[in-house]
Amino acid sequence: METIKEQYDIIIVGTGAAGLFAALQFPQDKDILMITRDAVENSDSYLAQGGICMLKSPDDYESYYEDTMRAGRYENNPDSVRIMIKSSPGIIKELLELGVDFERDEQGELLFTREGAHSTFRILYHQDVTGKEITSRLIERIRERSNIHVFEYTTMLDWMIEENDSGSKRKKRCEGIVLRCQDQTVKAVKSRMTILATGGLGGLFAHSTNFRHITGDSIALALEHGIEIQDINYIQIHPTTLYSNKGGRSFLISESVRGEGAILLNPKGKRFVDELLPRDVVATAIREEMEKFNSPYVYLSLKHMPKEEIMHRFPNIYERCLEEGYDLSREPIPITPAQHYFMGGVKTDTEAQTGCDRLYAVGETGCNGVHGANRLASNSLLESLVFAKRAVQKIEREFDQVKISEKEIDLGSYQDAEALQKKYKRLVMDEIKRKDEDFYVKWCNNEN
Ligand SMILES: Cc1cc2nc3c(=O)[nH]c(=O)nc-3n(C[C@H](O)[C@H](O)[C@H](O)COP(=O)(O)OP(=O)(O)OC[C@H]3O[C@@H](n4cnc5c(N)ncnc54)[C@H](O)[C@@H]3O)c2cc1C
Asked: Does the model's pTM come out above 0.85?
């Protein structure tokens, strides 16, 4: 059985869309370690239902830009937004070449859907399992590459950080990571470059659509090592997850269900909000309505849509609701808001470079300001891929100037996994509270 070596050219932490796409961008002479804390397909990317945005024609540029900025309350980094939108046709072309299948019409032209706060149809999709389609194809391609070594159930515990003496403007550099292997042994692994693709922080919340093992570890480590983070309190609450009292990950009822005309009803059967307003507005309206009626949920109705159409368009959602005892084609379903997406992250530039040399952050873990205060639906898979590619381009330019460190580190302090996880959680939660007590009280006070 293959074991983890002491050093690699590149370490990528996380096997979601961002990590996988980054790995595939490297030439095949790079020796790459990929680790994930769980099974390889257990990433939030795999769960994405709605789709992935694309600039479908140059005419749509202004409108797409404006929709993204408006959703982000104009706090977005305009450069990041411009780069993401302009790169989108190229990224989608690459996905198609990697074997990803999106819905097409009878003439074979790509079909587009629409979600909340988009002024037009510009989202590519694969039934209601777009993330599964994208990540499965990327995993297949990764398995064809002998230079990419994937280790499941392997957890990043720390970064090997040194003071920088290279004359760089960044004061620190990353020389590798400390990790816990599947057999629970703790190892230090060195690399020339490290890419963080560890996703968001939903696992820290009692109600979240995210996998429970995705717990903002890179954010905690950045706080621990004094590496700059950005917008830690910009956390998106998804308005519509299926209400259940069984615990575990909350099941998302995609925005595209509202995009296709589903309406929200209070316990008296009355509509109370425009369902296509931005997510934070809709989530707050639902929370207020729940408080008004002292109810843990409100209802979502798709009764206007024929059953066959629901089963064709939303087969996964339909099935899951049936498992919970609700027939989406016949009755409104109970829904409640839950933590869903993290707009903030380890601060990066538009090439995913963090404030630490040799350390990059891509996907939901990184924050280049593309989403501003609030993410526009279906922009996140796209931005994960766009900036993963840019990170690799920069790494390729700088790779030859970097040497593997010879320094050894003491692994004694990493043995108590539970204490470490608690400490990291506290670091993140305290920082959210410090930055935005209102948000903390409203949405985090039921944290695990
Ligand atoms: C239910 C749901 C539906 C969504 N729908 C859409 C959609 O329709 N369109 C869209 O654009 N976006 C959607 N999103 C958001 C989108 O899926 C994610 O933002 C995006 O895929 C993030 O990708 P990522 O690669 O950054 O992280 P993820 O896909 O979350 O992957 C994170 C990886 O990091 C690993 N990891 C974490 N911590 C550690 C650690 N300490 N050590 C080792 N490994 C670690 C995890 O195991 C995982 O492999 C949705 C999200 C959810 C939860």
From this structure: yes
